[in-house]
Amino acid sequence: MVYSRDGEAKIQALNGVSFRVRSGEAVALIGPVGSGKSTLLRVLAGLVKPTSGRVTVEGRKGPVVLAIQEPQRGFFAATVREEVAFGPENLDLDPAEVAARVTWALTAVGLKEERWTVSPFQLSGGEQRRVALAASLAMKPRFLLLDEPTIGLDGPGQAALVETLRKIKAETGLGLLVASHDPDFLFSLTRRVLVLNDGKLTADTTWGGLTHQGPALEALSLELPFLLSLLCRLQAAGAPVEAAQETIEEAWAELSRFYLGRKQEGGDR
Amino acid sequence: MAPFFVLDQVSYCYPGSSTTGVCQVNLELEPGTFLAVLGANGSGKSTLARLCCGLLKPTAGRVLVEGYSTANDDELKEIYRRVGLVFQHPDNQFVAGTVEREIAFGVENRTLSPAVIRRTVDEGLVRFGLEPRKNVSPHSLSGGEKRLLSLADIWVLKPKLILVDEPLAMLDPGAKKRITRLLADLRYSGQSMIWFTHGLLEALTADRVLVMAGGRVVWSGPPAGLLTMAEQARAWGITLPPATEAAYRLGLKATAVTNLDELVSVLWR
Predict the structure, then answer these.
(1) Which domain holds residue B45?
(2) A238 contacts in B (CB within 8 Å)?
(3) ipTM computed for the complex
(4) Which H/E stretch holds residue B149?
């Protein structure tokens, strides 16, 4: 797939990008500023057409939905309910189905019911992110594309977003492609990682696979998730740990195993 | 040294809202102080930032800058000369068509000779590394460059106190490092600064920390004090440094670990 953006000069924003995603898979998309992450998401959502190559979607029904950066900038409805209903209403569903989806989506993102009837503009930043996510979920997408979903969220807000996405993924088999500058956030959601640089896909790997590519990541000013950096450093220092862990749970388990072993040794001495 | 900046029982209620945005905050700052104001989304941080620079007037109490009060309209000009706010969203701050014109805008509104204006703008372009980008539109800059420009806009006005609201939000790791270094340089050159954030990592080098929750100051002291009360800090919505978080999770009590190097050396000596 190739995409060129018109502007003052023609810029090739994406160059020969090829990959497949399985139904229900969660994939992280990382890359430096201007590497083409947002363009790739827009192409996948069908908002812009590739100048060559193609995007095909097979298998289960439902649209591919993109939640843009700072989605709250697109709010327009008078109440939160109406904002979330807008998408499903335009799918020609019957009103009862629309209402059911709105209730389901707002419940899924954990927005308190007393906030459903206020203007989306009166909400806090964290609540606005939830409404934007609910609006995407109410479309019952087969695949959700998220562009920098943690912008403007504090620690508890990010933890709540991770929990919500995990829950919805488990319940509905929703597939995810998430672009973010925050490797710790991504590590808590995905196993697979795509690395984009200068419009080219330079790696299609897992978090464990990335631990062998430290210098290449550093050259792109990208970082490993904190836990993987820690395991890599311990391994390099000669500690008996395996750094190449694929998920955040596995990384914690490895670190805890190592630490308990150390404590045991200390106790035995 | 005598305080030049004083908050005296400052409170603020948003019009039409029954809840208090900021409640009875007291503060005295001496020149050269680096203060961090920590708190979750919705804790009142951004409201307090707006009160400190006179964009909002307290509904009770006083904000005094070298004796001038933000409550008096005819003293606001003196306040604006002394206190500069760097907004959380740089795009909200930009008014001019090019980076150079943008930096010049504020300076030109002071009664300065053209030679001084030219020199000041050039200093700003060089200090913030924007010289190569001086002829492009502020809106076409990368996220990191926009942040640099928003800081340059305020710095060239030479305010006694600079307020920065979440300056690292939305930046990739490379840009975060660059902005952190730049703010540290400013601080060590004697610039008084208040940094509003939800991350303790950014606040670790502060002279003092105020923690806000529900519009009130709930804790104040040196940043290291918060490391020994991780549970409470988390409950206030403060994000702990990843190394501190990992240390607590492993049960490394009473060890104030704040970075990867420290954690590696604690785990594998």
Answers:
(1) 5-222
(2) 268
(3) 0.82
(4) helix B143-155
